[in-house]
Structures are given as structure tokens and as C-alpha cells.
């Protein structure tokens, strides 16, 4: 096939089979699974939490999933734009999981509306899949000017508008007819540039401090963005956002890739005298996310590492058990911001760890 037609699109084949099965009314059959009588609280209805709840319920363990948002899916629902992932797919998963017996308690923030102590008292174990939500900053002047936006609130507000979800918490940011500069080179940045194009922006420019080869975003997304007329400025590092009451331009400096850091990534080095100004009406900062462990972790002996990631290992005595034996964790809050597949994997492996721990 590869010689004449390109690689086989296995993902599309799998998607077709799954869609067709759902269209024909197929549902997982767990009628032979006996209840163990055990109950697990899952905090976070993102890919990690859903992956965990799915394995638990298929093994006779009741899963009750808490999320502060009004719908399941985490970043699948609220962060990733609808043109990349249709929201009906996530909602279908909710329907399937409810059918299996998973209970969702939404609009409920653990640590605020309900306390961790209640979960530890009422359940046999707790899984934490709360993601990473601290926005990374550039640390240069001008980041707080009017017209400079964080990527995630921009995307969440746009999702609400496109899906007609009511909420006063996410005011819509309209970039129609504007010259937009997006800073960053990951999947979030690609979602921002492509969202701005769909909003009718006049010109969308992506500024990234390494070269195309070293971009963290998926190749396919970059290709789509280029196809949709996004302009890429590689090897440019932003050093200042300028404006009076409102953003007017971004000052960047050209970079060369230097020696690799501890993780093997070549570090961008500014080229002296290569500064330039990019005029714009709006700037979106998409530098990624850091873990955001809540203060109450310390009250329950849940340890984090120097990057604030929850300490939980695949090869611990019980898979993905934290320093509190009754608490397990997985997904972005353990790995740092990563991928949907790794979050699902860790949620599922944590469920296996919980099942071993509960001896069911
Ligand atoms: C814009 C964007 C685009 C992305 N694109 C891709 C992509 O194309 N491909 C890919 O593989 N990955 C992509 N990712 C990354 C992927 O979405 C994440 O790695 C994945 O969603 C992590 O899953 P999670 O379950 O760990 O966390 P999340 O998806 O963040 O879910 C965490 C959930 O926990 C809830 N929560 C947090 N605290 C509490 C609390 N105290 N009480 C109750 N609930 C709580 C949150 O409301 C949320 O629903 C993207 C990320 C972003 C931001």
C-alpha cells in the first residue's frame, strides 16, 4: 500500500469500526461481572479519570467520578477545539460509561464543594486525575497588556461559543479582522492559530523559538495550519510585547540552536543584533502548562516532586499508588502536560493497581 497509496490509516479504520459499532447500538456487555462491593472515588473526568473508571467498573468496582466542570472529558471537551475533536464523541463516552454503572457528580470541586477527607472516609480508594492548569509565562515585559490572552481561556471560551454552552465564566474573545501573533509551538499553539483562522482573523503568525524540526506540536497539525494560511516564524524568541493601553507589536530576536540540555533538547541562543518587531492587534501566549497541586495535598501526605508532579510510579508496589497508600494518581498531574493516550493508559494502569490493592 505504501508504495502506491501512502501508509494505511489505521487510526481511521479503528475510528470507523467504533463509530459503526455505536451506530448499530453496540454497548460493552458486563452482565457477567459480579459486584465486589468496593467503591472508588475518581477526581477528574478527563482522559485519565475516565480510563480509570472504565477499568474499575468492568471489574465490579463502583466508580464515582467527580469533576468541577459541567461536563465530562477534561481538556478533550473544554480545551481541544471542536474542529479537531467533535464533542459528541466525548458525550457518547459518557453515555456508554453511565450505562456501565459509572456515576458522575459534576459541578463539584474537590477541596471546595466536597472535601478529600469525605472521599477517603466514604470510599475504599481515591484516584486523582486532575490535570495540569498553571499557565507558563514568558517572563518578559508586556504580558499583561490589553489584547494579550492566555491560550486555554481563549480556547475554552471559543468552545463554549461554538457549542452554544451557557457560561459567564468564559467571556468570548473575538479575533475577527485582527492581526494575531501566537507565541509557542506545541499542540495548544496549533489549536490557537487554527481557531483564530476560523474566527476570521486577518493574519495569523506563529512565533516559535526553535526550528520546525524541533517543534513539540504534531507534524500533522503544523501541516494543517500551513494549509490554512498560518505564517510561521521559526527560530524567533519573543523578548517584549509593546503597546500603550493595548498591544501594538511583539519584539523578537532570532535564535540559533545551541548545546543540548539535560533532556537532550538543543537550547535556543539569541543572535545579537537580530531583533525585529512584528505588528499585531492581539497576542496569544501558548507556552504550555505546569502541574498545579492543590494546597490540601500536604494534609493527606500526597507527595510531589521538584516539578510539582504527583509522585506515583507505574512500577510501584501497586501501580500508580501515591505516597498515601489509599490514593492513586495518573495523567498530566503525574507526567506533566502530555498526551491523551498516556493519560488514558495511566488511568487504566492505576485502576489495575487499585484492584490489586483492594484484593478483589
Ligand atoms: C489546547 C490543548 C490541545 C491539546 N491537544 C492534544 C492533542 O491533539 N493530542 C493529545 O494527545 N493531547 C493533546 N493535549 C493534551 C491532552 O489534552 C492532555 O494530556 C490530557 O487531557 C490529560 O488528561 P488528564 O485526564 O490528565 O487531565 P485533564 O484532561 O486536564 O482533566 C482533568 C480534569 O480534572 C478536573 N479537576 C481538576 N481539579 C479538580 C478538582 N479539585 N475537583 C474536581 N475536578 C477537578 C478538571 O476539571 C478536568 O476535567 C492538548 C491539550 C491542550 C490544552
Number of domains: 2
Global outline = globular
Radius of gyration computed on alpha carbons: 22 Å
- What would you say the CATH architecture of the largest domain is? 3-Layer(bba) Sandwich
Name the hetero compounds present. Answer: flavin-adenine dinucleotide
Topology as H/E string? HHEHEHHEHEEEHEHEHEEEEEEEEHH
Explain this structure to me?
With 360 residues, the chain is of the alpha/beta class. The longest helix has 19 residues, at 340-358. The protein has helices at 2-5, 10-23, 47-58, 75-78, 87-100, 116-122, 151-162, 187-198, 219-227, 332-335, 340-358; strands spanning 39-43, 62-66, 103-105, 125-128, 134-135, 148-150, 179-183, 203-207, 231-233, 236-243, 247-260, 266-270, 276-279, 282-285, 289-290, 327-329. The chain folds into two domains: 2-133 and 290-358, FAD/NAD(P)-binding domain (3-Layer(bba) Sandwich); 137-287, FAD/NAD(P)-binding domain (3-Layer(bba) Sandwich). The mean pLDDT is 95. The strands form four sheets. It has a five-stranded parallel sheet, sandwiched between helices. Strands 6-14-7-8-9 form a five-stranded parallel sheet. Strands 10, 11, 12 and 13 form a four-stranded antiparallel sheet that branches. It contains eleven helices and 16 strands. The chain binds flavin-adenine dinucleotide.
